[in-house]
Automatic annotation (TrEMBL):
Organism expressing this protein natively: Lithospermum erythrorhizon
GO function terms (MF aspect): nucleic acid binding; RNA-DNA hybrid ribonuclease activity
Superkingdom of origin: Eukaryota
InterPro entries per record: RNase_H-like_dom_plant (IPR044730), RNase_H-like_EbsB-rel (IPR052929), RNaseH-like_sf (IPR012337), RNaseH_domain (IPR002156), RNaseH_sf (IPR036397)
Pfam families: RVT_3
Record-given protein name: RNase H type-1 domain-containing protein
Domain RNase H type-1: 74-169
Length: 174
């Protein structure tokens, strides 16, 4: 359910999609109901019907741009009071199957942007460890993506991390 909300948020941020929050909440309620039914003691017939609905929803949510690519979704978290952060990255194949993941806590993180940049770099390291040659990256940090695409000035605090990201993407031919 959280991934669904995250994807809708990204659609609004990056693709200027209109968001009708009542539809988003209704979708979340349907996902929760599907989850509840799938985990309750229903008949096998009812369970297979619900499983089919869940599969259909998953197919609608997962849209890799190219076949045979490993899709890395990364996210960073920041705790301002303690100047700490954490990164997470998930790797899925072109069919949406889970391939691997990474998580790492950090100390001395100065901003959410630093956490997001570290998360993207960790996602590329994950792809490298999984021996993937073709990688598609996904981040929810519009500011970071604009910096990587040269459309926004890069602040000093993330300059070295973005240098690492550019170096790693060049290893992939991108």
């Amino acid at each position: 359910m959280l991934r669904s909300i995250w994807k809708i948020r990204n659609g609004a941020l990056f693709e200027d999609q209109q968001v009708v929050w009542s539809n988003t909440l209704s979708h979340g309620v349907r996902l929760a109901a599907d989850f509840e039914r799938a985990n309750s003691k229903e008949s096998e017939q009812e369970r297979s019907i619900n499983h089919g609905c869940t599969q259909q929803l998953q197919q609608q949510q997962w849209r890799p741009q190219q076949l045979n690519f490993l899709k890395i979704t990364s996210d960073g978290a920041w705790w301002s009071a303690r100047q700490e952060g954490a990164t997470g990255a998930i790797a899925r194949d072109s069919k949406g199957r889970f391939i691997g993941a990474s998580f790492r806590p950090f100390q001395w993180v100065s901003s959410p942007l630093v956490a997001e940049a570290q998360a993207l770099r960790d996602g590329l390291h994950l792809a490298w460890r999984l021996n993937s040659c073709q990688v598609e990256l996904e981040s929810d940090s519009k500011q970071l993506i604009q910096m990587l695409n040269g459309r926004q000035r890069v602040p000093f605090e993330v300059d070295a991390i973005l240098g690492d990201i550019h170096h790693l993407t060049n290893l992939y031919g991108g």
